[in-house]
């Protein structure tokens, strides 16, 4: 990677343009192709607290950089490095200091994303010029962020175009290379007009373009204050409020000066009620709304005039979970102080982060921008790179994934995040009013996710006929099948089998057996796979390996082990890992004998017979499989020894123990288990799974379905289910 391609500079045209959104989006883009990106802020207001943008990006992308290294100078330090001469201010020492610090970062990273100043210095009018000066001296192409927001609403397209022209002129005057213009905070209704105006001003004529111009929509959520931020703005005292409740975004403000019945009708989801601290009636109304499933959940209460509930009243209100803040000011003054205050995107603001990434992804052509940046893809693959590529692969060919456990809060939060990331079309199973009430209580936006109630869905009768036909050899009647489909896991499995969904993810509240059993009964294994097995994608610091079987089969036969190896090679290919298969044993080559190693040797022979072009080694010890020096010594000349990417273990005891040992001691992220061998993808979650685990597993399932036998065509399949499924090969479980 050349020096020019090792860094990129992001600057805005003014304060409030939203370069945080662009920085997030760019780092998300870099994460899929760059092993060690870092972020750098040349000048910040203060070192008293960590820079919020650095903290956000460092925590989000696990960047290997300290706060001190990520920040160049404070404004006071920068001013001391600008010399006064007869010709005017001389910033050469300032520039040299910043360049030297970036060069040090570049020596231990693959890409430096420099995010310019916040226009909060002593001379905001000259900050764009300073950013241009730093960018040209760093040899960094520039992404300029132009705001489409005016003082009292959206700016006119001509005004946005003028701002873009002025920013471009300032960059050109310093000799900068402009990589792209991102117009941020765009009113969706004016998007095309804004793009046309800015492109015209940027020299986009006759189809020729000097650089790409993108439009990212305004997302009101991003500027919303959290309840905790409200407390900070008002210097208030939190009387009630868990950490999660204080992280909830405020949807609007309401002055509580009317009767309780009037206020109740005015409450909306996320509303922050500002009222005198002696209005116990309004506190009770708000607490009741927070508890009631059919009413919107307020964001919280701000109690004014320095009065507050007594301990007994707080005991009554606390079970609602509604945060309450006490402030000394009156109601009018309190609301006035909140006018114009905006919230930040913090490391804990998962909803804001995913919304920002979703807006960036929708407005920016990632492939085109990647080409502009000329990212050099390294052979090494880090966990962050793997995850970014996984989401991109799922997004590139969207599939429909069914989630049967809508009663679990983690599933609902994951559904919101998946919607923001635009990874898959989701189907949640459950009673719609209950699912939406749960989402409202959590402050979760389910977006376009469909909700299907197995008890009332017309699909139930259609799929019951399919299930009864498949299980008639077990004596299952149509009535029994219909009853069985009240179980969301069975219902979801039949949706996958009949083409109403491309895959299913379950297990947050169900056992592995409860997740797999319906799939074995209905979906069955693919041709050539005698068993379902469980693989883990092991994301090590510099590569991704596939471990199998680590989850399902206790002691597979040689025949079964060969099938697991072939399935694992296909899993590797599906996720962009070139399969080089190692059949792991306690001995290498012909050095050992015994029942266990003979099983592995026979399984290796079967794999070689069925897939003669598949790079293969076995029996082989783990160290010889993954360490080049050991592999060369123990199995010289073998193309897999020391370079294995797929490791197949002889039994569950070995596989499960090894994956956990590598996970805990090898600084690895274990993604899975990925169930392999089924005709259509069904994947199992751990009951201790996190929201991030669910998001990754849904993406994995979506990618698996891209290579499965059937691609859902939702618009036509629903009317064809019966005749299609009756013609499929019937096989007993």
TrEMBL record:
Xref: Gene3D superfamilies: 3.40.50.10950, HprK N-terminal domain-like, Isocitrate/Isopropylmalate dehydrogenase-like, P-loop containing nucleotide triphosphate hydrolases
Enzyme class, UniProt record, top EC level: transferase
Record EC number: 2.3.1.8
Keywords tagged on the record: Acyltransferase, Cytoplasm, Transferase
Low complexity bias spans: 705-727
Catalytic activity: acetyl-CoA + phosphate = acetyl phosphate + CoA
A Gene Ontology BP annotation from the UniProt entry: acetyl-CoA biosynthetic process
Compartments where found: Cytoplasm
Gene Ontology cellular component annotations, sorted alphabetically: cytoplasm
InterPro entries in UniProt: DRTGG, P-Actrans_bac, P-loop_NTPase, P_AcTrfase, P_AcTrfase_dom1, P_AcTrfase_dom2, Phos_Acetyltrans/Butyryltrans, PTA_PTB
Pathway listed: Metabolic intermediate biosynthesis; acetyl-CoA biosynthesis; acetyl-CoA from acetate: step 2/2
Major localization class: cytoplasm
Residues annotated as domain DRTGG: 229-339
GO function term, MF aspect, one: phosphate acetyltransferase activity
Ranges for region Disordered: 705-733
Residue intervals of the Phosphate acetyl/butaryl transferase domain: 385-702
PANTHER family: PHOSPHATE ACETYLTRANSFERASE (PTHR43356)
Free-text function comment from the UniProt entry: Involved in acetate metabolism.
NCBIfam families according to UniProt: PRK05632.1 (NF004167), PRK09653.1 (NF007233), pta (TIGR00651)
Family: In the C-terminal section; belongs to the phosphate acetyltransferase and butyryltransferase family. In the N-terminal section; belongs to the CobB/CobQ family.
Name of the protein in question: Phosphate acetyltransferase
Highest classification ranks of the organism: Bacteria, Bacillati, Actinomycetota, Actinomycetes, Kineosporiales
